[in-house]
Amino acid sequence: MCWSAEADLVAGAVIAGVGVACVARTSRVRDLPLAALPLLLGAHQLVEAAVWAADGGTGPATLAWAVIALPLLPLWVPVGVLCAAPPPARRRLALPLVAGAATAAVLAHALATRPVRAEIRGHTVGYVVGLPHADLVIAGYLLATIGALLLSGDRRLATLGVLAAAGAVICVALWRTEFVSTWCAFAAVCSVVLYGWARARPGLAEPLRA
Asked: Which SS3 state, helix, strand or coil, does residue 5 take?
């Protein structure tokens, strides 16, 4: 959870385990992307443990962490929510989906054309990549991720959205220059809420279906 390699290893293993449990309880194909989110976020924390072990820098672990955190997550979350959402909620999810696609495109281009560097800063990790219009990109990122959860029409997903929003405020206040790393860690821990969501979905007695 950003505080050390050991903390990332423990948190990553636990959160990934919750993700495996979420996927195992999923009986509908359209629920799989969202059910797998804790698995992805847990793996993300394990990757950051490798960043710690490498003492930051610009190596493969740093790039892998950045690819997941930057272009992948703002697209994964709204797509996952849209797939799992009931038909009445899908129209309002178009806005976070468009925001996520645009944000992911900008971030993917940035990673393809600029180096990303990890810096160990005490008990946190800062990731440095040159972003044009950084404030606008961050706004699009948060709209895509938190917005999709809040607009999902599902109480548990909205709870996750509220927790993620609170985490964003805390991380900006306490670790502004390490916001991406600390907020991703906070979101990973909060993602265990998805186990309750997965348990409330159609049971395993039903066949896997769309």
From this structure: helix
Q: In degrees rounded to 5, what are phi and psi of residue 153?
A: 80, 5
Q: What is the pLDDT of residue 122?
A: 87
- DSSP codes joined into one string, 112-156: HHS--EEEEETTEEEEE---TTHHHHHHHHHIIIIIHHHTSS-HH
- CA–CA separation, 1 and 11 (whole Å): 6
Residues pairing with 127 in the sheet: 118
Where is pLDDT greater, at 202 or 35? 35
Q: pLDDT of 149-161, one tens digit each?
A: 999 999 999 999 9
The token pair that represents 143 in the structure block: 């709209």
Is residue 32 within 8 Å of 26, Cβ to Cβ?
yes
Q: Give me the chain's average pLDDT, please.
A: 92
- Alpha-carbon distance of 85 to 46, in angstroms, equals 29
DSSP state of 208: P
Assessment of whether the complete model's pTM goes beyond 0.90: yes
Q: How far, in Å, CA of 186 to CA of 165, rounded? A: 10
Dump the DSSP string for 36-58.
THHHHHHHHHHHHHHHHHTTSBS
Structure tokens at 9: 């290893």
Q: ∠ CA(81), CA(126), CA(114), 5° rounding? A: 80
